[in-house]
Protein 1
Amino acid sequence: MEKRDYSKIVRELKDKGYTLSMARIAILRYVMKENAHYTAEEIYKNLKEEYPTLSIATVYNTLKLLSKEGYLQQIMIDPNKVIYDSTLGIHPHFYCKVCGKIEDINSDIKIQLNKEINGNRVEEAHIYVYGVCKDCLKKQKSKRESLSLN
Amino acid sequence: MEKRDYSKIVRELKDKGYTLSMARIAILRYVMKENAHYTAEEIYKNLKEEYPTLSIATVYNTLKLLSKEGYLQQIMIDPNKVIYDSTLGIHPHFYCKVCGKIEDINSDIKIQLNKEINGNRVEEAHIYVYGVCKDCLKKQKSKRESLSLN
DNA sequence: GTTTATGCAAAAGTTTTGCAAACTA
DNA sequence: TAGTTTGCAAAACTTTTGCATAAAC
């Protein structure tokens, strides 16, 4: 699991004319971790410990900026909550209905995406797969077994 | 464009022990139209005219019930808004970034869905395609043309 | 020194909840 | 009549906004 090169992103954002404030860099570093899937609230809570002056508005502003500039994708797998993912490109996401965990999927689902569908111009696509994750299946199984023993 | 057979659903819900109230039937009828993609708010506003005593809480309760029982699917293509779709089965949805319109897609995207991915049990999947719809493309085109004439 | 971003607090918007009253079977 | 569901109003949550202050370049 390699570390993401956010210094390149910092350079690019600078070139685009953005001010690289403390808050933005902190959020960028936090969010660029491999396989990270965070809500704005999670990012805020975690960074608030280290940067007590941080405000939730800044978190939302920065996440919007990073999404707009193509460094994050917004995952709308969970109603009423946007989750941010720094792994780019069309890749399916798995959502556990039991524990809410999100996982990137890299295989088994193949998608052919045309630039045009029914006369509409296609720009991006998201695939969301719902079910029960490995860990929750294990828990359910051991629960069933202990019940059948009694 | 055929009309949906909601009387069958009414029968099934009765068999499952649900009370078939006026409100539930009205919402069911409203939502079962072909190619309908409604938010709770839209359903509420439209039915409120005919049934002034209807409350938004009942709309949410009923939509949740119908989703749980498998008669509706929740489309989370738009952040902060759940859209309900009575067309079942895995079918991709197209979302126009310009006008917000949602369209069912029945072709061009093929999906192979396994019952198991990375050890996780798969139960359902959603495919969301984002872009600019036919109508908005047309508007943009005519706008560009009229500008280049001046 | 000028411009841009931040933080705060309030607002906006969607969805949920608790409970008495109304309705369904 | 017993058991559910409804409607209301308030609460809970997420996200956005406006504006004075602070930070970045």
Protein 2
Amino acid sequence: MQKPAADSDNKTDISLAERLFERIGEEIVAGTLPPGAKISEPALARRFGVSRTPLREALRRLEERKLITSARNVGSRVVSFSLAEVMDVYHAREALEGMASRLAAQRMSAAEIDGLRGVLEDHRRALAERTDGAYYQDSHDLDFHYRIARGSRSFLVEKILCEEFYLLIRLFRRRHNWIAGRGRRAWEEHVRILDAIKDGDAELAEILMRRHVAAARLSFEASQRLLAPDGVSPEATHPLLTKKREK
Amino acid sequence: MQKPAADSDNKTDISLAERLFERIGEEIVAGTLPPGAKISEPALARRFGVSRTPLREALRRLEERKLITSARNVGSRVVSFSLAEVMDVYHAREALEGMASRLAAQRMSAAEIDGLRGVLEDHRRALAERTDGAYYQDSHDLDFHYRIARGSRSFLVEKILCEEFYLLIRLFRRRHNWIAGRGRRAWEEHVRILDAIKDGDAELAEILMRRHVAAARLSFEASQRLLAPDGVSPEATHPLLTKKREK
DNA sequence: CACAATTTAATTGTCGACAATTTCCACGGC
DNA sequence: GCCGTGGAAATTGTCGACAATTAAATTGTG
């Protein structure tokens, strides 16, 4: 299975609308289009040198991906997550990644498990070279969580985790500061999860993954508390739930 | 919080694109646009008396909702789920609805719980009047699961369950046949889940909800086995994971 | 000066047209 | 009958224009 929404080398294979979707999504994640920013279709269309029609199609998709919010006749705005909302994403992740691990324990092949073992070994080496203890997985294909979601063999779990949540996770991963020792511990938790999967222990795999994601949530929360005035937008009540019928 | 994508009484409040999204979604769920059917933009635009532009916007959203699949320069097709894929939806539901119940046990107000108790009482009466033992919750607002998702106070859990999964669930609920006694037992399970929520027992609420959804999965599966040649499309490998880079 | 009303400018939603691509159909060859 | 080819028809993706709505700027009044 080839990951659908990624680094297509042949640029003529994808439509303008899809390319815009990807590029604007990346700009949102990178902060080029910052949280809360109003999206002007004409300005963006001029910037990219395209007509507004494919741009609007891309915006509709970005809205479904929860990266922007839109209101009729008003336009779109880059989403801005409060800490509570980030916590909600972690809760949803915990549930789905737990289930993904359970299914992976039942469905993942020995070759896939071995491959992931090698990936974790690469991670360990990269981690050992860092002086700040941060544990990043820069390549999506080599991301532990991505591999588990794929190993679940559940089209929906994979699609939600690898496509819908992927941009969300990256969006506020920029706000995350690694607490001392957490990187190493996260890696160890990965190893234990994989052990449980290899043993076919679905329940243990789920428990360990849920603990892992919960620990990541707590770690994120702790790091935000440390820099509360800068890193949090507590005034941001999430507009997705109130905006649509505001009128 | 007003549910965003539903029965808006004032038709001028929503754009054409959004109205098309809703109507086409309903036609897919109702089977008017049957699984596997090719979607012709010009034909649909003529039928609805609109230009293709808002129609395309609606299709982009329907694609994100997993109700249609699209390929560049080829067009869109109504999705067709195999039994295995329906099972995957149940797995994802189990995870998220379990988490929703856990959060609801922590966050739901006494008034909300009482209101839901009344809803269940209405359900019991409706169930007692049925001779076929089928347990339908025709109104979304009065749907037990919807209420729990709202009670979770997690924007993302709610959005996924109440918006993204809602149409999917209805899509193959039409294929579900109630096995004798399952309707009554499902209602009883609802009551127990609500009891756990009222007691603030988050873990029990989650366990009971997960069991409930798993039982629904097994019930669905059993009903499909009973009518295998008619109700299953086993040849349908899910196109979402293979179609995009087919070219 | 502050606020309300009006005007102007910009943006948003939809339309229909055009170019590119795919699908369909007829015909010929084996 | 089946398969391949070519051309016409249909569809898809994008463009720019127009009408409706919103936002910003300007003017008038107390």
Protein 3
Amino acid sequence: MERRVTLKKVSLKAIAQQLNVSVSTVSRALNGKPGVSKRLREQIIKVANDLGYTPDPLAVGLKRGTTKLIGILVPELKGDFFATIVESVERALYHLGYRLLLCPTEDDPKKEEDHLKILVNQRVDGILSAPANFRSNKSLYEAIINEHKIPVVFFDRLVEGVETDYVISDNEEGMRILLEYLISKGHRKIGFIHPLRGIYTSEIRLKTFLEYKDKIVFQEEWIKDGKSSEEDAKEAFTTIMRSKEKPTAIIVGSYHMTLGCLRAAKEMMLKIPEDISIVSFDDAPWNEIFEPPITCVSQDPREIGLIASTILLSRLKNKKMGESRIQTVLKVKFLERLSVAFIK
Amino acid sequence: MERRVTLKKVSLKAIAQQLNVSVSTVSRALNGKPGVSKRLREQIIKVANDLGYTPDPLAVGLKRGTTKLIGILVPELKGDFFATIVESVERALYHLGYRLLLCPTEDDPKKEEDHLKILVNQRVDGILSAPANFRSNKSLYEAIINEHKIPVVFFDRLVEGVETDYVISDNEEGMRILLEYLISKGHRKIGFIHPLRGIYTSEIRLKTFLEYKDKIVFQEEWIKDGKSSEEDAKEAFTTIMRSKEKPTAIIVGSYHMTLGCLRAAKEMMLKIPEDISIVSFDDAPWNEIFEPPITCVSQDPREIGLIASTILLSRLKNKKMGESRIQTVLKVKFLERLSVAFIK
DNA sequence: GTGAAAGCGCTAACAG
DNA sequence: CTGTTAGCGCTTTCAC
């Protein structure tokens, strides 16, 4: 009794003809609109099922202006964090009939802009975005929200000044935890390899780091832009560790870059934590398996994805939730492992 | 001289009115169709640019039956391999104006089926798929290809018997390399934790492993279904290493599962490779950083994505390439590192 | 070379 | 309750 597997193009018209009724009646019946006799409605539904009817989303979209498409902008997919968020979002939206238009930005505001314009053009119902830059594309986002009335929810990052929903982690707190921990372990000479400048999380973490200027031994050469990439972080790490005066600990601003730093340490035959202590932003499955396991502050990407989806969904349902913004800041979790030495 | 950032709904009609010509002329002009005077065409193009016109993809799709949408089915995003493929595909298709509809299947044929039906319904122009199962959904795929005429390109995996393009890796060869290597290192007691049964790569690797039955010490309890998951692999590994008679080496059928095995080894205080040798399918950035670095056969996800996209693109261009199928089998690369001991 | 008209599949007034 | 009509934005005959 297998369901027909080959759903040939069957339109409202086909159903209408088969029952000798008009297309509009069929439309009403199938959409649960009032104004169709119970008996006829049931017949129509039956025929529709038998024929394997599914509405043409293009036609519906054209007419109704709603596409059941959600655009999701992420800098990248590699490296578990954003991948997990996207998976989580997909699971939350899937059963409600929404589909994901995937837009990797590579942290390039220009590519982000292109994607955004296309999403508007495609008439997506909503947009989830981890923006490439905390300043760029501000007016574009505002136009999308205010003029095109497409709900936008930021996650992990945001664009400063854009009034909309978001779910991010407490990056200040994350940096403070890491710093306080290192200090408590006796470290004063502390370096920071931060993510690509311009990214919201990079700016916040850097800003918070700089607030500790006086509590630590501050040295310009120990602060480097790892550009969110494994290679650049590797180079940054190497440079720092080659300088005359070395730090005793380095804070690494993201999981990709942690890989780069570990690679560099390995090549330089540096023992962690004996020769250099390392702590990192973001956890990953392999962090725990490394020798030594890496101490870090972590965010839960699954939760971020779920919350972002939930917020978007409520906007979608409730077009007129008005000005009340849902802005969530998640606590980070501190995972103490073995990558930090105690300094006397 | 910034480009207008807020492209309000501007249609062909708007342009037509502004120049006092008909909509059809504008359409022709903008689509480079013959039958418009050079002068008029230029004017139209200018006005279109000034107004920031972009064709409505829904309307175009409805009319022309082409949507510039590509569906991509992957089991998951976590873990770099498929994430990198998707990124690579996106980069290849992006500049040609194609967008990705992301469909994570979680290796569930039912979810795969749902996604496929929706993709057909959405009238995607093409489908890239790493199918969840080497048998399921065969007739659905065939219907999509033959009846709906939507080109399908399999990557990494395929569905047996479905006549279409694909790009996969040489899994038999991969398994042979691993096995021969272990044997050359003196191993005879070899276990295998394979990916979820039913997945193409799992079946092939298992089949090839079994062909070595007579050249190794074969033991049922050393072969386990790691279900492509970290947890299941961890449990499988633990069980195997608790059995009375232990293998000296274990082949792990995918990168996720490698993490699980390493975790298990750590918990059981097993030293690699002294207590147990490990080799793995698929490489990952962290494989090299582990202590010891993991010996493996690897495929290049970037290349897989690129080839798959290229094939699809040529199908899209050349609807009538006819029966000639492009079926690519990529060589795997063997990366010898330090996770295998030499057994006298 | 250009315009008018039909229609893709659907929804939503407006009439009966 | 049901059918007719119009139209979403675009492409594509078919006339002129």
Protein 4
Amino acid sequence: MDSDTGSIGSRSSSPDLVVDDAGSFFSNKMFQTYCKDREEAAQAMTERCPGGGKAKTRSELNKDEVQELRLKVNSRERRRMHDLNQAMDGLREVMPYAQGPSVRKLSKISTLLLARNYILMLSSSLEEMKKLVGDVYGGAGIQSRRAAHPAVTAAAVPAAHLPLHPLAQSLHSLVGGAPSALSAAPTAAIPSPHSPPTTSFLGFHSPVPGLLKEPLHLTSSYRHFPGMPCPCSLCQPLPTTTSTLHNLSMTK
DNA sequence: TAGGCCATCTGGTCCT
DNA sequence: AGGACCAGATGGCCTA
């Protein structure tokens, strides 16, 4: 289980976590050490500095105080990482993959790479939609446009395995409602909520074997966007050339 | 058992 | 000085 924060305690590497008053998490062992050190440090502190005293430089700190400081820093770092993981979870939630108890969570690297591809795809879709909207309102007839629509003309086009993206749905309704070919599309082509994912979804290919390998990350059950498959270019994955993939995976 | 993924600790660096 | 950020090290869990 790769769960981090959200699932505090679900990960066995962080067993029996407890939360301190600052919201930090400790294993029992750590917590015991933490409490012990805290008590000792606090006691030593009151003995040495009854009035609170003024701040000491680090070189002046004794062993207990150094330990106390170390724990404080560790706690901050832990919290920082938890925040980071929460943000990662938030990102996972908006990714076009299902979440659920039976669904393996995308790894961090997979989440980031997929998010990047997803954004690129959305940007591309938006551009194409703008272009088509410009065409529609620019004089070209919808009928002729629809006739040219591959989803209409290419009835023999193999059923697309890709879901219709919401942006594409908007586009279809914009250019004259859902194409008939779409509504007639065989349901077998509709990705089921738990259909095996394809790495080509959203133009997403595994850039580096091992990073996004199947089946570990992407063959677990997941949910695509609801909608009918469409063979139109808008619904196709982005072209992913080797160089593109290289850029996707290597650029920082 | 090896490899992947992760959480945590730790020391260093930079910024306020 | 204190906090945020980062990267390396370490160890645990899980899966193939």
